[in-house]
Design goal:
Layout: E1 6-14, E2 20-29, E3 34-38, H1 45-53, E4 60-65, E5 68-69, H2 75-78, E6 82-85, H3 99-106, H4 122-133, H5 152-164, E7 170-174, H6 182-198, E8 203-206, H7 210-215, E9 219-224, E10 227-233, H8 234-238, H9 242-246
Parallel strand pairs: 3-8, 3-9, 6-7, 7-8
Antiparallel strand pairs: 1-2, 1-4, 4-5, 9-10
The structure holds adenosine-5'-triphosphate (ATP).
């Protein structure tokens, strides 16, 4: 069997008031896994992402990347292989910079970000045109527009492209379509799915949308009280229904 890209082993987080918000959690993430992450409010979904990204240190347990112990590696260093897209369209992009400038900046993920000595050549603009066109929301016509005046859907599409332009070893999608209207959300989910598949990305996606959790990805996990209470993949996932899932939300 293939080795995991990323693992949590007996990962536990106890916060200063004594509450354990991640409880001896074990998770092996394999190459090209697209894992949808479900759970009630407070189940520990953001905690899981914060532990993976290194923003929240473990109280005990281990974090491994390609078999190497990275428990003590800080968040800033983990950006060399990890990218995250947030729910808030304002996060992840620089509002005064244009779409093209943001994409140029994103090419430096994992390195010191500066636009010094880097230019938006005609070739680059052509590349960004083709890239943004794949999102299906006219972002390609707004390459020279300041990001702050894009629609929420266009801005989230840009955040997604910025996170994936330099292929991350692991992509964290943190309810990235939740702030969008249903049609725009569906459009970004479909574009996300294409990009994840076409670029063979390994990713986790937090969602409260049961339909999306069932439709997308090869694997689904449900969290409750800082533990994984369901972990299914392939045929087992495909056989799941919304009614099956709702049972995990009544605990
Ligand atoms: N840094 C922290 N210090 C103290 N408590 C925390 C911290 N981070 C999270 N918690 C607590 O841990 C629990 C899990 O929170 P978390 O944000 O991971 O849940 P969630 O599943 O993402 O919820 P939601 O769906 O509402 O976003 C909550 O009770 C939360 O208050």
């Amino acid at each position: 069997m293939t080795n995991p890209v990323f693992s949590l082993k007996e990962a536990t987080v106890t916060v200063p008031n004594g509450t354990t918000i991640m409880d001896h959690l074990n998770l092996d993430i394999y190459p090209e896994d697209f894992i949808t992450v479900l759970g009630t409010n407070g189940a520990g979904k953001s905690t899981l992402f914060n532990v993976i990204s290194g923003d929240l240190p473990l109280s005990s347990g281990r974090v491994e990347h390609n078999g190497e112990d990275i428990t003590a590696v800080p968040a800033v260093k983990r950006t060399a292989f990890l990218a995250r897209v947030f729910q808030d369209p304002k996060l992840g992009t620089a509002p005064r910079m244009t779409v093209a400038e943001n994409l140029l900046l994103a090419e430096k993920r994992g390195f010191r970000r500066t636009l010094k000595n880097r230019q938006l050549t005609a070739k680059k603009l052509e590349k960004y045109y083709d890239l943004t066109k794949t999102m299906g929301n006219n972002l390609e016509d707004r390459l020279q527009t300041a990001t702050g005046s894009l629609s929420g859907g266009q801005r989230q599409a840009l955040s997604f492209l910025m996170a994936t332009q330099v292929k991350p070893g692991l992509l964290l999608l943190d309810e990235h379509t939740a702030a969008l209207d249903p049609k725009t959300s569906d459009q970004l989910m479909a574009a996300t799915n294409h990009q994840v598949k076409d670029n063979h990305l390994t990713s986790l996606m937090i969602t409260h949308n049961l339909k999306d959790a069932l439709t997308y990805g090869n694997r689904l996990i449900v969290l409750n009280a800082g533990k994984i209470i369901l972990d299914v993949r392939d045929e087992e996932k495909e056989a799941l229904t919304e009614t099956d899932l709702l049972r995990y939300f009544t605990r």
